[in-house]
Amino acid sequence: MKKCQVCSTPLNCFMSFGQMPLANGFLTPDQFADEYFFELSVGSCLHCGMFQLMEQPNREMMFNERYPFYSGSSRGMAVHFKKFAEHVKKDYLFSKDPFVVEIGSNDGIMLRHFADADIRHLGIEPSLNVAQVAIDRGINTISTFFDEDCASEIVKKYGQADAFFAANVMCHIPYLHSIVKGMGILLKPKGVVIFEDPYLGNVIENTSYDQIYDEHVFLFSLSSIRYLFGQHDMELIDIEPQKTHGGSMRYIIARKGMYPVSDRVHLQLKKEKNMALDKPETYESFRKCCEHSRDSLTALLRDLSRQGKRIVGYAATSKSTTIINYCGIGTDLIEFISDTTPIKQGKFSPGAHIPVRPYEEFSKNYPDYALLFAYNHAKEIMAKEQKFVETGGKWIVYVPQIKVL
Length: 405
Ligand code: SAH
Ligand code: TYD
Ligand code: ZN
Prior knowledge:
By secondary structure, this protein is an alpha/beta fold. It has helices at 59-62, 75-91, 112-115, 128-136, 148-158, 176-186, 200-206, 222-230, 263-274, 280-306, 318-327, 359-364, 378-384, 386-390; strands spanning 12-20, 38-44, 51-53, 99-103, 120-124, 141-142, 161-167, 187-198, 218-219, 234-242, 248-255, 311-314, 337-339, 356-358, 369-372, 394-397, 403-404.
């Protein structure tokens, strides 16, 4: 029986999505025969509350010099990180010559606002191609995986930090105890950790099971985060729900007793009790909702395809890999996936091998239907795709429900 990565209690494994490729494993035809697959199954820990994958591929297979996710590929996220940086500068940096550290800093979408303001900063980003974009922009970045040893090295070279950020990366890291010990080493006594990730409560509520893929080894709740940091003499002092990635939670953490704990934390913990995030029945019902969502989406696509309609996927997101492979969507249903990221274009989607084509092919010859794999960027995308709709095009979305718009 597999054990919880955080507290070692045997996991309640309640569902498998079947054999899955790497979510960001876009590939060329000569690589089809050797494509890597693993079983994507999930469990919840009934002791500490961590929702997690039963098995995760090696980190070097996912995060390397060919990592195809560039944070700057969405304008909406650029605005989000600008606001995030302004909030930190205003509310959390009080010392004379502050120093901030970010892990998973990617192309520098967040840290650029500190670099531009001449604030001492350091990004830790193992995927070299995206780290290089940040380095080329003058953002101080080292390409390595963060852990407690890395934290000691940083302190030796730069001293302790006022703030430590992590956006959409804590949930990628199975060795969380080493990360939290690293934060303890790195932070000044009154320093804060601010991190955000997709929130388990939103995933359950919206049946957004596409948040479950190889990189996301965890989906956090407040109770699981409280447990984890409590083991290291740190505590959750505040939260700020976010709209990003279909519903995320920002957590603010400090050394125990340094700051008062906000009422927002207690209120959200109560909400989690009401949602029964600690009960196995909740996950049984989530499994049924996933199966229902899969069956309705495939029925809709098959029906449209029988009517001879052209359907194209919009945005080759990591999340789409779970949808496409779990639902068995192939080139029989979707002609191609349009995406703006140069290194995804000309390749094929993981597992189902649907061609990924440049955005221009979408706008040159609009399909009848676009299956919106980046529903989290719906506002941004729909605003710029009015012509598609004016010419009779329709959107298909599947979160929170299957809908044709
Ligand atoms: N923060 C960005 C990028 C998120 S993608 C954003 O929100 O858009 C996750 C990033 O974390 C990837 O760039 C990946 O290379 C990086 N990463 C994965 N494991 C890491 C680790 N142990 N330490 C630091 N970064 C890591
Ligand atoms: P995102 O939902 O952030 O990806 P992930 O599921 O991997 O976290 O979406 C980013 C992808 O969507 C990226 O490949 C670029 C693509 N994209 C477009 O093709 N067009 C767009 O207008 C936007 C906003 C994203
Ligand atoms: Zn546990």
